[in-house]
């Protein structure tokens, strides 16, 4: 039986000796690096961006993470974006009427096994009193031309949502009838029909087959043709096409097209800070109060113990829920309420019992005899003895607070602004992620909550072995 | 040795309050100690030896019933000082203590240097590095190497710990050191080393010891005077040479008979009965229920500590005219 290690370095050395401790420390280190890099790379701007509904329109909605392709047999599409500069532009001015015709042609290959989730065409132009007329045609690799829409631009920045526009859909249905097919107009899905081989099932996502145009196949690309008629030679127009895929990034996207990776990365520092601050502060306060009571005794002890008794019967979670329901607290105010609610608690009791034992030890008596004052004995003789246990307690209570934050968010009482893991899970829940199978939306934050909790649990487990000599394996 | 008296104790009394009884742990003890002398306080377990040490240095538990008497230390009655004055002027500056069981006397989370320097830092508000310097010196005096100041108690052997505890007791250069079983829980070789160290220190620093032990042979090593304590009272106070050769009090005789001897056939004797319950001590002489020479007067009247055979003091009716009559 060897003595407990003295000092932080020795503790860390002993900790990394055991496999559990090493795993825990590695996970924690990784999370800390992520935390540091997230704060360093993105800064707090990300939080504003996270809540801005217009910042994410280029991302697909509810896309799975890219690496999840390995689970699917067919190749899922990624987002294809044709920027303004990707369009081939040709324009000519027609005489004195000062009519200006602009043709914008975008081309792209499409070799995936599944259909895109959405198609959006963004048109921006500068024009005067008379608005330009825009005609959009979809030219398929098989040579067929689908007339999509022809409309007058209402705004300088217009978005023609091809996959959702009713006029486009009617035109696509007309195209199908013209091919001699008999589709059920209600069941035709625009973005499917535009990319499908011509057959009876082409409008229906369950039966349609993709008309591929990668270099191995027909080699002809898909083309979109935007023809604008403008009323002045100095008027301009440009287009941008987004063919939304079904895969995105490392963590996918949610129903508001947000890159979940950013939310999840930002969740790491929040979870760590929340868990550590709340457990450190409550454990330290409880330890010091317990030691104070046991050492000074008398009415100090009585007061601390009776207040602890009261605290122990306060229903913690209901009070927290009530407070955050009434005041709509941010996560940091919840933290303060949490610490206030755990100033006294179980650790006050267990520390007291330990100090009652320690204060009878001869070295305390010796210290009294050579004149050490009561506060000196408390800080220099008693507290260092119980600090390792307080420390182990801190580590083992972190997971509880990480879970608590997630639980509060799931109950809708989380922070309204900062993205946290619990909040992402909560949004996934209300977005029906479990029902519709958007697994990444639920799984990734849940796994991270679990991994963080497990890291602290592993460290606590090996701490216990180090600090409790009877559990040592040597 | 005819030095001035450095410590004189008159009628020192310490009673503890129990739930429904009063324990007379130290009951009217008087003795005096001259500078440079050693008084060995011997007796069975539970006879009040450690209580007496605690009463002298005033480390009292909460349940004190009576604490009275006079303790003249270097000419001042320290019993009249209040707790703070006592702490500031007496403890460690004039009188220090080496506690029983060195294993547990050192704070396990303090380095030896810091621990030994503690009294200096507390009392004299000495800066830490100076205090550590002095600690190194005094640790050297007790035969410990310099690097020990950087070590923790669990890294030291029992003998080294005991040396460190002695160093801690000496760091403020007190006149009187109370040694409460300083060698208990040490093996015989280490015990001998510590005893030699204590002798050397006494000579070099002209210390006075109050040496509390239950081991009579150990007491003979170090002591000039031997005080035999029984059930909270002193039975006999004699110079060391005479006590062993010619014990006066029957209890002292019995105690000496119970010491095992080497190379003789004599079986160690034991004293019949057990030490009395200090909450209800027997009337008269407290030893009378176990005394082979008990007389009627022993059961009725408490014998006083009286001079006998020169400077020797004994509390027994056998040596009193009133008793013999």
Topology:
The complex is a heterodimer of chains A (474) and B (325).
Chain A: H1 8-17, H2 19-41, H3 45-50, E1 80-82, E2 88-94, E3 99-108, E4 118-126, E5 133-139, E6 145-152, E7 157-160, H4 166-178, H5 190-195, E8 222-230, E9 236-244, H6 260-296, H7 298-313, H8 316-327, H9 331-341, H10 346-358, H11 362-369, H12 374-410, H13 421-430, H14 433-436, H15 439-467
Antiparallel strand pairs in A: 1-9, 2-3, 3-8, 4-7, 4-9, 5-6, 5-8
Chain B: E1 5-17, E2 22-34, E3 38-42, H1 49-57, E4 64-73, E5 76-77, H2 83-90, E6 95-98, H3 112-124, H4 128-141, H5 158-170, E7 176-180, H6 188-205, E8 208-213, H7 216-222, E9 225-230, E10 233-239, H8 240-245, H9 250-257, H10 296-300, E11 306-308, E12 312-314, H11 321-324
Parallel strand pairs in B: 3-8, 3-9, 6-7, 7-8
Antiparallel strand pairs in B: 1-2, 1-4, 4-5, 9-10, 10-12, 11-12
Characterization of the model:
The complex is a heterodimer of chains A (474) and B (325). Chain A is α+β, with helices and mostly antiparallel strands and 474 residues long. Chain A folds into 2 domains: 8-54 and 258-471, MetI-like fold; 74-244, Jelly Rolls. Helices cover 50% and strands 14% of the residues of chain A. Chain A is built from 15 helices and 9 strands. Chain A has helices spanning 8-17, 19-41, 45-50, 166-178, 190-195, 260-296, 298-313, 316-327, 331-341, 346-358, 362-369, 374-410, 421-430, 433-436, 439-467; strands at 80-82, 88-94, 99-108, 118-126, 133-139, 145-152, 157-160, 222-230, 236-244. In chain A, α2 (19-41) packs across α6 (260-296) and α6 (260-296) runs antiparallel to α7 (298-313). The termini of chain A are close together. With 325 residues, chain B is α/β, with parallel strands linked by helices. Chain B contains 11 helices and 12 strands. In chain B, α6 (188-205) links the parallel β7 and β8. The longest helix of chain B has 18 residues, at 188-205. The mean pLDDT of chain B is 87.
């Amino acid at each position: 039986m060897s003595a407990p290690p003295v000092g932080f370095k020795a503790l860390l050395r002993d900790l990394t000796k055991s496999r559990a401790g090493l795993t825990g420390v590695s996970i924690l280190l990784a999370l800390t690096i992520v935390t540091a890099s997230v704060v360093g790379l993105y800064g707090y701007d990300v939080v504003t961006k996270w809540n801005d509904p217009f910042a994410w329109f280029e991302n697909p909605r509810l896309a799975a993470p890219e690496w999840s392709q390995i689970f699917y047999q067919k190749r899922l599409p990624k987002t294809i974006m044709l920027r303004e500069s990707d369009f081939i532009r040709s324009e000519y001015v027609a005489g004195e009427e000062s009519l200006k015709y602009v043709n914008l042609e975008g081309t792209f290959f499409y070799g995936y096994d599944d259909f895109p989730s959405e198609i959006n065409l963004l048109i921006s132009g500068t024009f005067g009193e008379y608005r330009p007329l825009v005609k959009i045609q979809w030219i398929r690799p098989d040579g067929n031309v689908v007339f999509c829409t022809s409309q007058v631009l209402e705004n300088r920045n217009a978005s023609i949502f091809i996959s959702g526009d009713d006029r486009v859909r009617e035109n696509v249905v007309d195209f199908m009838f013209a091919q001699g097919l008999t589709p059920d107009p209600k069941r035709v899905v625009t973005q499917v029909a535009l990319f499908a081989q011509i057959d009876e099932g082409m409008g229906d996502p369950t039966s349609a087959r993709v008309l591929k145009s990668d270099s191995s196949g027909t080699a002809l690309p898909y083309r979109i043709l935007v023809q604008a008629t403008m009323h002045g030679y100095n008027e301009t127009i440009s287009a941008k096409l987004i063919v939304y895929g079904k895969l995105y990034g490392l963590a996918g996207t949610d129903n508001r097209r947000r890159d979940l990776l950013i939310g999840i990365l930002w969740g790491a520092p929040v979870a760590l800070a929340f868990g550590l601050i709340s457990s450190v502060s409550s454990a330290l306060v409880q330890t010091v109060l317990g030691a104070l009571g046991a050492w000074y005794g008398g009415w100090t002890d009585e007061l601390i113990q009776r207040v602890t008794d009261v605290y122990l019967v306060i229903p913690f979670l209901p009070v927290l829920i009530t407070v955050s329901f009434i005041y709509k607290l941010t996560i940091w105010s919840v933290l303060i309420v949490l610490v206030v609610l755990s100033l006294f608690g179980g650790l006050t009791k267990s520390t007291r019992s330990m100090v009652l034992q320690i204060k009878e030890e001869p070295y305390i008596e010796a210290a009294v005899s050579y004149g050490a004052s009561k506060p000196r004995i408390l800080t220099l003789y008693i507290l260092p003895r119980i600090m390792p246990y307080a420390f182990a307690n801190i580590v083992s209570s972190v997971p509880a607070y990480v879970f608590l934050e997630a639980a509060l968010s799931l109950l809708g009482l989380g922070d309204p602004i900062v993205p946290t893991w619990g909040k992402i899970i909560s949004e996934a829940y209300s977005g029906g992620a479990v029902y519709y199978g958007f697994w990444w939306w639920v799984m990734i934050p849940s796994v991270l909550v679990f991994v963080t909790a497990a890291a602290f649990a592993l460290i606590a487990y090996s701490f216990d072995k180090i600090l409790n000599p009877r559990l040592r394996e040597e | 040795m005819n030095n001035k008296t450095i410590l004189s104790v008159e009628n020192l009394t310490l009673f503890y309050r129990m739930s429904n009884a009063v324990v007379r742990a130290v009951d009217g003890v008087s003795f005096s100690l001259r500078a440079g002398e050693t008084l060995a306080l011997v007796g069975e377990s539970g006879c009040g030896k450690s209580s007496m040490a605690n009463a002298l240095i005033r480390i009292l538990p909460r349940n004190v019933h009576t604490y009275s008497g006079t303790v003249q230390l270097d000419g001042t009655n320290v019993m009249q000082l209040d707790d703070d004055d006592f702490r500031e002027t007496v403890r460690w500056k004039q009188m220090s203590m080496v506690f029983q069981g060195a294993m547990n006397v050192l704070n396990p989370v303090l380095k030896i240097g810091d621990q030994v320097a503690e009294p200096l830092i507390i009392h004299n508000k000495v800066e830490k590095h100076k205090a550590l310097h002095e600690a190194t010196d005094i640790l050297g005096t007790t035969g410990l190497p310099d690097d020990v100041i950087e070590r923790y108690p669990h890294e030291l052997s029992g003998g080294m710990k005991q040396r460190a505890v002695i160093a801690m007791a000496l760091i403020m250069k007190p006149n009187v050191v109370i040694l409460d079983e300083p060698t208990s829980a040490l093996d015989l070789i280490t015990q001998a080393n510590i005893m030699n160290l204590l002798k050397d220190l006494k000579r070099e620093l002209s210390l006075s010891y109050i040496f509390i032990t239950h081991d009579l042979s150990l007491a003979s090593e170090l002591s000039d005077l031997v005080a035999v304590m029984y059930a909270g009272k002193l039975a006999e106070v004699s110079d060391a040479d005479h006590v062993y050769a010619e014990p006066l009090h029957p209890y002292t005789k019995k105690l000496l008979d119970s010491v095992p001897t080497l190379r003789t056939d004599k079986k160690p004797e034991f004293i019949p009965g057990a030490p009395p319950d200090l909450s209800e001590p027997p009337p008269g002489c407290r030893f009378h229920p176990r005394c082979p020479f008990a007389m009627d007067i022993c059961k009725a009247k408490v014998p006083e500590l009286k001079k006998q055979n020169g400077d020797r003091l004994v509390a027994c009716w056998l040596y009193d005219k009133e008793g013999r009559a």
